[in-house]
Amino acid sequence: MMIRSKHAAALARSNLRCLATPPTRTATSLAWANGSRANGLGVPTAKRYYDLALAVRRPLSTSVQRYQSGGASPYDHIDKKHELALEREKLEAHPDEVSEASSVHGVFSEKGVEEPEKNEDMLAGVKEDLKTIKDTFALDEVPREALNLGMAGVLPYLATSLSTVYLAWDINHASITGQGFLLSGQTAEVLLQIIEPIQIGYGAVIISFLGAIHWGLEWAKYGGTVGYTRYAYGVVAPAIAWPTMLLPIEYALISQFCAFTFLYFADARAVVRGWAPAWYSTYRFVLTFVVGASIVVSLIGRGQIADKINRLPSPADRVKALRDMQISEMEEEERYRRDKIVAEDEEGDDEEEGEDEEEE
């Protein structure tokens, strides 16, 4: 009991000391005191310090006390007369206004508010598609130097394609009327046989160059060092391109069309992986579109005269003819060698017979 009473007495003395001694004047308390004087609150200084001391020790009760001391909110006032009038009103039924959508509230509209009728543009979808095409072919982010050189690079391919179409039309015109429009049928056919290998060879050069670009990006360490995966682009591209020169014209054009398309998707994938600039996929799409359209036009033009011209021997046919010629020459040499051996043997036999006769 003595120990407990001593602790109680010490606790009481500490509480009285805290209440009797004013708290230390801080910058916050000084600002609050100056604001109170300016507003004319007229609260004694000692009482202010006492209230602050209580607020520190009893925050919950002080907060409730401040809330109750404030003015009543106008929203807390209950109008009993108005509520009683609403209770006595009878609800009216309007079945003609009830529908499946009457209880659904629009997300971007208000219930019961008539919205003005919107003028829908019937060509909005077409305009949006045209805008997308325009933005795609704008090429604003592509460097001017790369764009100019790239477009200049596809012009020879486009020129050979248009030349194929014109020569095919001239050959058809000559077969119908007896003479061509600007060139004779035979001259147009000879020029066509010269232009088609040029188109195939130039296409192989372009495909090889598209693969070599990735070697340059790897050496420049664009997007980091990738290694053999990026080098594979430069190896596969010429491996696909150059064998097409041994194929017939139609098969060579189709093979190169597939090669251009495959390389475009590979380049687009490289852009997604960060191995190429962001504008490179759009740039490649435009160039691939021009080259692909040129190949399709060439195939259409050649298809119109497939049965009216002599088939130009392909490199594979020339290789086969060269091989057959070499085999024929080897057979001829072997036949000549055998005949020579037989002739020498016969001469030797005749000489032996002559010597025998002389001895007899």
From TrEMBL:
Residues 344-360 have a biased composition (Acidic residues). The chain crosses the membrane at residues 200-220, 232-265, 285-301. InterPro entries: DUF3429 (IPR021836). Residues 334-343 have a biased composition (Basic and acidic residues). Residues 330-360 are annotated as: Disordered. Pfam families: DUF3429 (PF11911). The keyword Membrane applies. Keywords: Membrane, Transmembrane, Transmembrane helix. This is Transmembrane protein 69. It comes from Ramalina farinacea.
